[in-house]
Design a protein that fits this description.
3 domains, Immunoglobulin-like, 50% helix, elongated, Glycosyltransferase, 573 residues
């Protein structure tokens, strides 16, 4: 009986007429609760050993302990209860399938009558909007530009689930890359430095040591290298962070041998670079029948795999082309349910899927990354999701989960920010506007003392919001799929403590920039690169003498000004 049901051995002696019988009822209830808790721990940490070990331990314990005289009808009642539960589960599943088929028919009707595209391109940002975004970016830059070993301002809650520090690092890096690609492509300096330091933070042992535990209790392996097996939530996310930095800023430092080296305090070293991470993604996808790679042991998340897929497509498009068809097939067959929803995650060992939880966000966010891989799937899913989010022009706020997945506090900040991000990539200006209004309404900004942050929102939510504000229709897709040309000329050095740029782009050899001198500064030193060697350049908007580039195409200038400035740097004819 103990093997038939966790704690089932206690049921042989349950009863309401004696203290011993009541004690067995409480023991059986407690055993079941412990087992359910162990399933939750399995889901949260990948500890696949805990549930079966607890089950067997309870069975052995009840078999060995003295219970008194068994009740003759107890085993029969227990078996009837189990059978009844199984039958009920089967009936419930059949009812759900019938509902899902009806939902699918309705979804197909919506898709058949929908316009080719339910989205439209938002207007180009004004200079004032860029300035506001620059103020918001300080939240990210303050955390990124601190010494690599410091994590001031990050949230250390757990390293196994969605509040893990690695996700905060990843999405702050993604945000800076999207902003650079959008309106700061001619700014290197502190922006490149910030992104490089964030990547280096991923190599801190405190960030990736979780894998040694997960690999031990989930795979029965002692290998501590987080890029050796599964774990796409580290390898795929890190590779995307590197490739976005490379695409947006022209930085290829992570291609070099051992450019991403992980060190344990014990002295073990795991040398990696972009190529080794890409090789790991390919190897692990081929190893599974599902083709999608597990995040933690046993659990496959399609969202994580779309992130890893985007990273692989950007860095190694030929390698992605080899698996593009099978990835799509498995995604649609195994990770989109009958009703057309994304399956949050699926168990490798059992094939069972976790029910849809989390509201709109886990359904919306994959659209952002999928748009770079399979735009038709992204549009199809977004069109259906839009029906759930919008009623009579009003955003259905109750459909958004009231828990911030970045810090587990009661706030819809993460849900609104992630949905805004997807809406921006899909070009849905209406949903983007409504989500940002809801975010401002429920999680207002604190803009005092040179700070610009949302006190109730997680660090992760701040990063995702900044990504969304820097994204326009197909921005991520274009960044992933297209080759980028480094900006020239560009700002090679700018002191973050002196000046904050809101715009910096080069067109036809002319650099256009807007910035604000900080903290009452009256001057700032800038260095420029990408100039034509020995050529003369003049400033428009600043009283600075003519610049003459050196043999390497570089030059420096001292800005004397206060507050906001705008200038152009162009070659003299």
């Amino acid at each position: 009986m103990g093997l038939m049901l966790p704690g089932g051995g206690f049921f042989a002696h349950v009863g309401f007429s004696s203290e011993a019988g009541l004690a067995h009822i409480l023991s059986a209830t407690g055993a079941l609760a412990l087992f359910i808790l162990s399933l939750g721990i399995w889901f949260a940490t990948g500890n696949a050993l805990l549930p079966p070990l607890l089950w067997v331990t309870l069975a052995v314990t009840t078999a060995m302990m003295g219970h008194g005289v068994p009740r003759a009808n107890a085993p029969i009642l227990l078996l009837l209860g189990i059978c009844g539960g199984i039958i009920t589960a089967i009936i419930a599943t059949m009812c759900w399938q019938m509902w899902a088929y009806g939902k699918r028919r309705k979804s197909n009707q919506i898709l058949a009558t929908a316009a080719v595209s339910s989205t439209h391109t938002p207007a180009i940002k004004t200079q004032a909007e860029n300035e506001t975004d620059a103020q918001r970016m300080k939240f990210i830059l303050d955390r990124a530009l601190q010494p690599v070993e410091n994590f001031d301002g990050f949230e250390w809650l757990d390293q196994f689930q969605t509040a893990a520090v690695r996700y905060q690092i990843n999405f702050l890096g993604y945000a800076l890359s999207m902003a650079q690609a959008s309106h700061l492509s001619a700014l290197h300096g502190y922006l490149d430095d910030a992104q490089s330091r964030l990547v280096k933070k991923l190599t801190d042992h405190r960030v990736w040591k979780y894998w040694q535990l997960e690999n031990a209790w989930g795979n029965l392996r002692t290998d501590a290298d987080p890029a050796s097996r599964e774990n796409i939530m580290y390898t795929g996310f890190a590779l995307l962070q590197m490739t976005l930095h490379e695409k947006s800023g022209g930085n290829d430092r992570y291609n070099k041998e051992n450019a991403f080296t992980l060190r344990q305090p014990s002295g073990n070293i795991f040398p990696h670079n972009m190529q080794s991470l890409a090789d790991s993604l390919q190897r692990e996808s081929r190893r599974r029948d599902f083709h999608l790679t597990a995040c933690e042991p046993n659990w496959i998340y399609p969202l994580c795999n779309t992130i890893g897929g985007a990273a692989l497509k950007s860095y190694a498009p030929q390698a992605w082309a080899q698996q593009e068809e099978i990835f799509r097939e498995r995604l649609e067959q195994e990770f989109i349910d009958t009703a057309g929803h994304f399956v949050p995650c699926r168990s490798v060992y059992t094939g069972l899927a976790i029910p849809n939880i989390g509201g709109i966000m886990p359904q919306a966010m994959p659209c952002f990354f999928l748009n770079a891989l399979y735009p038709d799937i992204a549009l199809r899913h977004w069109t259906l999701l839009r029906e759930r989010m919008l009623k009579n022009g009003n955003l259905q706020r109750r459909a958004f989960w009231p828990i911030d997945t970045g810090n587990y506090r009661f706030s819809r900040a993460a849900a609104y920010a992630a949905t805004t991000l997807a809406a921006a990539e899909m070009g849905d200006a209406e949903i983007k506007k409504l989500c940002l209004e809801a975010l401002d309404d429920e999680c207002p900004v604190n803009a005092q003392n040179d700070n610009f942050y949302r006190p109730r929102a997680s660090v992760w939510a701040h990063g995702v919001e900044m990504m969304a504000r820097a994204t326009s229709k197909d921005a991520f897709k274009n960044l992933i799929n297209e080759k980028t040309t480094p900006a020239a000329p560009f700002i090679d050095f700018a002191d973050y403590s002196q000046i904050l740029f809101s715009y910096a782009k080069s067109t036809d050899g002319t650099l256009t920039a807007a910035a604000e001198l900080r903290f009452g500064q009256s001057s700032a030193r800038l260095k420029f690169g990408g100039l034509i060697p020995k050529a003369c350049y003049k400033f428009e908007g600043l009283e600075i003498p003519t610049l003459v580039a050196d043999d390497s195409g570089r030059a420096a200038a001292e800005i004397q000004a206060r507050g906001k400035i705008q200038f152009k740097l162009a070659r003299m004819s």
